[in-house]
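Let's sit down with a protein and look at its sequence and fold side by side. Go ahead whenever you are ready, and we will take it from there.
>
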Amino acid sequence: MHRYRSHTCGGLTASDVGSTVRLSGWVHRVRDHGGVLFIDLRDHYGLTQVVIDPDSAAFKTAETVRSEWVIRIDGNVRRRPEGTENTDLATGAVEIYARDMEVLSVARDLPLPVFGEPDYPEETRLKYRFLDLRRETLHGNIVRRTRIIAAMRRRMGEVGFAEYSTPILTASSPEGARDFIVPSRIHPGKFFALPQAPQQYKQLLMVAGFDRYFQIAPCFRDEDPRADRLPGEFYQLDLEMSFVTQEDVWETMEPVVRGIFEEFGEGKPVTHSFPRIPYDTAIRTYGSDKPDLRNPIEMQSVTQHFAGSGFKVFARMIEADPKVEVWAIPAKGGGSRAFCDRMNDWAVKEGQPGLGYIFFRAETGGIEGAGPIAKNIGPERTEAIRQQLGLEAGDAVFFAAGLPDKFYRFAGEARNRAGKELGLTKEDQFALCWIVDFPFYEWDEEEKAVGFCHNPFSMPQGGIEALSTQDPLTIKAYQYDMVCNGFEIASGSIRNHSPETMVKAFEIAGLSKEIVEERFGGLYRAFQFGAPPHGGMAAGVDRIVMLLCGATNLREITLFPMNQRAEDLLMGAPSDPTPKQLRELYIRLNLPS
């Protein structure tokens, strides 16, 4: 028999009854039932119940073991007594009567429990991540993550992609965040950068004729953490295709991503055909470029009903600036003063002056609007708003007013909150869509200059002619995001493969031809020697796994994440360099006081 095990702790079934087996694993918990000891023995594969009575030679050792000790047991497989089976366990029909036991490793008192998984401070969980990873939910999430990534690789191969690995030490590139830089010992004073994305390399692969590339790519960004984005390192399903339009990318990747959600979504419905929503429409309808389409609420402009009305707050704003708009957020089933007041209180907590509303109730002879706004604008305008939005008695509508680019995010958050509070958002499904036609440029208020809105390597709609003749802020890009349940899970574009167009695009953003040649020389040179039209995207592996696991934080699907301060508490990183290391790199520290 093998030194440690003949079976795993998840492998025994009723067909093994009568067999002599050897298992090794961790003591999940110990229970004493009137002198008979029960040990739940756990390994990577599952859990098996072990029984030791005082007649067993293993009993004396079993009395000493504690949670998370590592033990080996020899024994006989037998059926559990009738009525004690555990249908939640793969091994729940059987148990092992232990005849021999060996302690392989002793565990000290635990800084956090493995059994039961109570909430514990993040600092403790990350410092002792090797214990945290033994907990059933987190362990299961990590196992599921590996299966999802394997399925991504399989599905990409099935649609003709090959995986190529791109360099980790590279040059700095403008991807929207700070680079992690690595000093070069051989070239004093010079630095490599860790890639924020393999953007330039994958485009170079297209120029080199590889046609369909993909990679489960590690990416590095020195940015602040948040629930849907970890500091430091993350992974993406990166891909690029030659001789394609954006429609080709969509039609190729929709089945791949839909298949992943269907395979691992535990039966939840998945959008069959992803709607393609222009960016401007998404902002005006949902208040976000990553809308949660499980929520049926769609906003509309009702500016005309307030212009010249008795509700002077909005009427004066509209009169003072023709760009001012009033947006309505219809809320089916929200027609009570109590709910409307709760929404208003929430808006105040969000730093807003409030959230105006009308709620509708049945009255003799029809439906009447109630609330201060209805009183001020009068029944005719109130009824016009109700008719436009298709509302009935028992419904409500909330209003946001001002310059849309200043308030659309708040309006979108109000839409999300109303949808969840009223139970309109259908939580138990995956609603996916494409957001398309992003602006190519945006106005940077800090720099008082035009900058790229999204990916600087994208092709502007209209090409070099649009760059030469249009107001930059009106130019759209062949850019697109894939969104699921309010999260951006992928972003991509058709690339700019013309060197002249590339230079012109960067010049508008304030970078000269010389700077483009210096910073993006590899790509710029490559485009001089026959570049195919190409495009692609990158899907966030971590976010997809998070959605499929039903987690709300990326730390729950990541092996060894950093904390909120971008520190690895387990390994003690970042750490202080030694004087010798600094001398070898010709670096002198100038630390803040």
About this structure: The chain has a mean pLDDT of 95.
